[in-house]
Amino acid sequence: MAEEALIVIDVQNDFCPGGSLAVAEGDKIVPLINEMIGSFEHVIVTQDWHPADHSSFASNHSGKQPYETVEMPYGQQTLWPDHCVQGSGGAAFHPGLKWSKAELVIRKGFRKGIDSYSAFFENDRKTPTGLAGYLKERGINKITLVGLATDFCVAYSALDAIGLGFEATVRLDACRAIDLGGSLETMLGKMRDAGVKLA
Ligand code: VGL
Ligand code: ZN
User: Which single residue of 29, 145, 153, 164 has CA 20 to 30 Å from 178?
Assistant: First the structure.
């Protein structure tokens, strides 16, 4: 029988109003996500989890500002304000998120030299996080994604899920976007074209 999991992406203080990489209304989705957590048998949460010297932070590139891009060995990388530093309050889940039921916490972006938007692969698009193996071993072939941000970590995760043969639905009412230079429209189009269900 098809098993289904809810994947809650990066609902962390730094992505909510008051955080260092705040997504507008990032906190507004918490009550809906809590309701959804209650109705799924399998719940997995992801946590952006960077060392303080992470290469995705503009502060670690002299002369660079947040939202500029740099060329990394694995390709183009957007630079961000320092965010979700391992063990910091900003990296903690939003205090209202009822995530205790989660059977797995996937941490990503914990290696200095490489960022990871997707819950499945790091930004070299090759290094797996282990999530696909976990889902496959547990017989879970269908996922619903919610969280932050729609146009980065949620979209990259959904696209990788399809590429790996999972059925993927993004609940847009339980996501909010950064929308950097049209990134929301671009990523919604890519998800639609790839066969991600947008609900
Ligand atoms: C994210 C930018 C940098 C996200 C994480 O969760 O969408 N965006 N790190
Ligand atoms: Zn990050």
Answer: 164
